[in-house]
Design goal:
Layout: H1 2-17, H2 41-55, H3 68-78, H4 94-98, H5 102-121
Length: about 140
Amino acid sequence: MKQEIEMLEQVEKMKREQGGRLRMAPPEPRGPAPKPVTITREMIMQSKRIQLQQQVFQPGHILPTMTPEQWAEEQMRLGLLPSPGDAPPEPPNKKEEDEFDEDELEADRRKKSAWDDWKDDNPKGAGNKNDHYFKR
């Protein structure tokens, strides 16, 4: 707040010194004035030509950004690939996989049997084809 009051007091002082108006001094020129540039159609075509020339010997696909070794190192660092010194994971115990509940096996057998019966009762192509089987 003090800074703002000081700034306002300085502005008032400058107005009094300049006769009630606050004028900004024009900026001082810095070196010679820049020369005007005229952009012609030929210049645009020339830049396009240069751009096309640079693309001539470029491959038609995106070039790789890292080698396979760099990719593998990154994956190992993230923990998505095992490190070379790590032991391979242990295979699951087959006895645990082979043991099914007898009720589950019986239910699965019944389901398969019901599907076989349905397939026997409804042979392929025996559907309602344009009322073919109903107009006997």
